[in-house]
Amino acid sequence: MIRVHVICEGQTEEMFINEVLAQAFHHLGIYLMPALIGKPGHKGGNFRFERLLTDVEKRLLGDRQAYCTTFFDFYGLPEEFPGKANAAGKNSMDEKADCLLEAMVERLAIELGDDAMRRFIPYVQMYEFEGLLFSCPRRLATGINQPNLEDRFMHIRNEFETPETINNSPMTAPSKRLKTLYAGYDKPLHGSLAAIEIGLPAIREQCSRFDTWLSEMEALQPVA
Questions:
Q1: What is the pLDDT averaged over residues 151-171?
Q2: Is the predicted pLDDT of residue 107 greater than 60, yes or no?
Q3: In this predicted model, what pLDDT tens digit does every residue of 175-210 receive, in sequence order?
Q4: Cβ pair 170, 127 in contact under 8 A
Q5: Distances 75 to 127, 129, 155, 164 between C-alpha atoms, Å
Q6: What is the enclosing helix (H) or strand (E) of 121?
Q7: Is residue 19 a contact partner of residue 198, using CB atoms and an 8 Å limit?
Q8: Which domains are assigned to the chain?
């Protein structure tokens, strides 16, 4: 069994791993182990680099037979996070993500060394987890038991090239759009219900960066 520690930003990402991704990877002999960033018992969030470094170090150096990856949103990252300021000046979503991840990996490698970093799979969700849910507006509406919102969700989806490019301002980030249309939207609960309804194949088809991340983990081999 190949083990992968997944450092999650919050309960939404953690629940998505447990309820959606874990089963798909278990069939491949890959065991995903999600945990919220920071000290056990808190609710995640506040994704500062110092906290990430502590958690990655604990996984890579404390468990040398396992891999480690990250699952956090670009939206809401503190400006002092490695690469965030430079990423703001990039044009495309891919350029922003690559800029951030390259800077993050460089900083981690300085602290942890190249040998440990060979077991690290960097990932940032563009721009926010809830963007993935717009992969299928009809099933999103069904999954959160708000079928009357299907057309509104479809209108949002059609404004963007992919769900991953739904933008990241405090007013128009994917979760903010959902909350505006459905005040009762609960991120961890409804996020997982919608993702289950949509299905992983549909999300992967629509969201290329997310699909690439999963493909990288699917290709992992046992640590030598």
A1: 92
A2: yes
A3: 999 999 999 999 999 999 999 999 999 999 999 999
A4: no
A5: 5, 9, 22, 11
A6: strand 120-121
A7: no
A8: 2-126+207-218 (3.40.50), 129-205 (no CATH)
